[in-house]
Structures are given as structure tokens and as C-alpha cells.
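Hi R.,

Here's the input for the magnesium ion complex you asked about:
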Amino acid sequence: MIVDCVIPARNEAPTVASVVTLARACRYVREVVVVDDGSTDGTGDLAAAAGAKVVRREDSAGGSKAHAMEAGVLATGDAEAVLFVDADLLGATPAHLDAICRPVVERRAAMSLGTFDYGRLNWFVLRLPPTTGERIVPRWVFDAIPPEKRKGYTIEIMINEVICEARLPTVARVMAGVTHRTKRDKFGLLEGYRRTFRMFADLWSMWGVCRWRTYWFYLRDLRIER
Ligand SMILES: Nc1nc2c(ncn2[C@@H]2O[C@H](COP(=O)(O)OP(=O)(O)O)[C@@H](O)[C@H]2O)c(=O)[nH]1
Ligand SMILES: [Mg+2]
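And here is the predicted structure with magnesium ion in place:
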């Protein structure tokens, strides 16, 4: 199975190079594509220097994480599956990404994902509707999301919807020791919380749009691996 890695990145200079290096070291990944939305901190150049193919969306006024992922999937050409990884990961190793890929490459699952390590809360986090950016899906899954549903931070919920409404199995695991630079780290306390609030408001807007049964199918067909 040909797997390419897509990394959406906007102003992620402190971490993007290490994430590209990490993704290139994943044994299942053929090519690493970074989609940079007009970063002002050299993110694109750092990604290219680390060995990524960089897609630049210069005029990204209407851009979002979802649009960046869409451009990344397009740039992967003939990849059969896409591993999405956020550009702000801390503490991840190639083994974490290998473990995420394996269930899909071995065709034991249609979607496989890793969640951040929340310690004692992991049991609970693993059973929430997943919003994690670290996941692998067959390319057709992304293509099946209607264009009007590819926006902002709700894109992960839309991926879940395609998988779960097709009654396909997911494997989830905790990425031990992995976290990310939070919006507070990136933007400071006030702006960080403002952006986090906006993201949760986006996700909240899915209430009534997404059906409860989708979550039920998710839990029913979920396998948690260590
Ligand atoms: N290219 C691009 N990447 C984005 C955009 N918004 C978010 N990202 C990237 O998507 C990933 C996840 O976003 P982040 O803000 O960290 O969300 P969080 O992890 O849920 O707090 C990071 O690598 C961001 O740089 C965007 O508009 N364009
Ligand atoms: Mg993040």
C-alpha cells in the first residue's frame, strides 16, 4: 500500500523540521508533503530543508486546516492511503507513526489514529469522537467528504463520518509521551485561549449536523490497541 504523509502547517517553525524528519523515518511513508499557508516564520523553507515536498498556498485568506489537508491529498498523486500528522508534535518518534500506520497497511482497519498522552484520562479520551490530527485513512475516504464539508477544524469529524457511516473499523492507540505545542504556547495566554475557544465553537457547531448514530457506529467498530 503506498502511503504518503500530509502535514498541514501554518507558522510552525519551532517544530516543523523535526516532524518532517520523524515522518520521513516512518517505515510505511513514501513521501512527506507539507502544506504551508503563507507562514511568516520560514515554516515552508524549514520543511523543504528537512526533505518534505512543500505545497505553498500563498493566497490563503479563506484557508484552514481542512483546505490545507485537501491540497496535501491532491499533491500525493497516486498514494492509496494518507497519513495526516500535525506540524506541532512534541515527543513523537517514528515508532509512534509506524504503530498508527500498521493496522491500515495490514488492512485490519479502515482508519487508525493516535491520541495525545493524557495520562489517567487516556481511557476516556480514547472513547471520545476523535478529533486527533494523527491518523491514517485510505485516500477514498478524504475524497468522499463533500467539498462544502471540508472546512476548518471540523474536518476530522467529517473523516469520522465517512468511516463510521460505512460501518468500517477503526483502531485507536495512545501515543505514549506525545503532546503538542498548544495554542497558548504559540500565541500567548489570551490569544491562545481565544483560538482554542473558537476551535471548540467550530466543533460544537457539529451538534445536530452529525448524527449520534455515527458515534455509536464508531464505538461499536472501535478497537483500542496498546
Ligand atoms: N496550512 C495550514 N495549516 C493549518 C491551518 N490551521 C491549522 N493548521 C495546522 O494544523 C495543525 C493542527 O492545528 P492546531 O492549531 O495545532 O490545532 P490543535 O492541535 O487542535 O490545537 C498544525 O500543524 C497547524 O499548523 C491553516 O489554516 N493552514
Ligand atoms: Mg496542535
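One thing worth noting: Residues 86, 88, 180 surround magnesium ion (ligand 2) (CB under 6 Å).

Cheers,
M.
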